Amino acid sequence: MSDELDAETLEFAHRMFDLARDGATTELVGYVDAGLPVNLTNQKGDSLLILAAYHARPETVRALLDRGADHSRANDRGQTALAAAVFRSNAEAVRALLDAGADPDGGNPSAVATAEFFDLPEMLAMLRSG
User: Fold this and answer.
1) How far is Cα 67 from Cα 108, in angstroms, rounded to an integer?
2) SMART domains given for it (predicted)?
3) What average pLDDT does range 119-123 have in this prediction?
């Protein structure tokens, strides 16, 4: 039995990742509510949540978290959704992730390390205040 996905399945998966990047929240969560794994990851280990956070889509971040997305999951480079949201200086997404219990010190580099490295004092203050 092959572990390879057929072209149609791969195309569908790529479309789901694009929905997360684009902030197409209603459409994406419709698929999640219908059975799409909320923690679906791409070939780089980026989850739907990480992609939504990186592309500054706080509504999508909240909707995925509400459906059980794993905020502690890191991609293949050790980055979490929280670090991605901090990198993008997206306070709404950072707040949603912190409220869901995301660890500011999780991942490598962590959200705290990201804020320090890129000199993002507002993000660092959010992370430290919880």
Assistant:
1) 25
2) ANK (SM00248)
3) 98
